[in-house]
Amino acid sequence: IDGSGFCLDAGSNPASGVGMKIWTCYDNLPAQQWTYTSDNYVRLMGLVHQCLDLTNDDLTNSNQVQTWQCSGGNNNQLWSI
Q1: CATH assignment of 6-74?
Q2: Over 90: is that where the pLDDT of 81 sits?
Q3: What is the DSSP secondary-structure string of 3-52?
């Protein structure tokens, strides 16, 4: 989250179904290293193939987003930033 000192954090064991949290930013922490791909996915960098995912296809306020195995054509993983 630009300029706030806080980052989107996937936790110490990123895996499908792990809820995201906002956490203090740390340099080079793998759980906070994200990339926005040319095909509109937000992918966790590193050895795990996890993407930011809309939990249960639920667009209501306060729905926690999660990581999930990156999957082509999964609308829950497509983001417009």
Answers
A1: 2.80.10.50
A2: no
A3: TTTEEEE--SS--TTPBPEEEE--TT-GGG-EEE-TTS-EEE-SSS-EEE
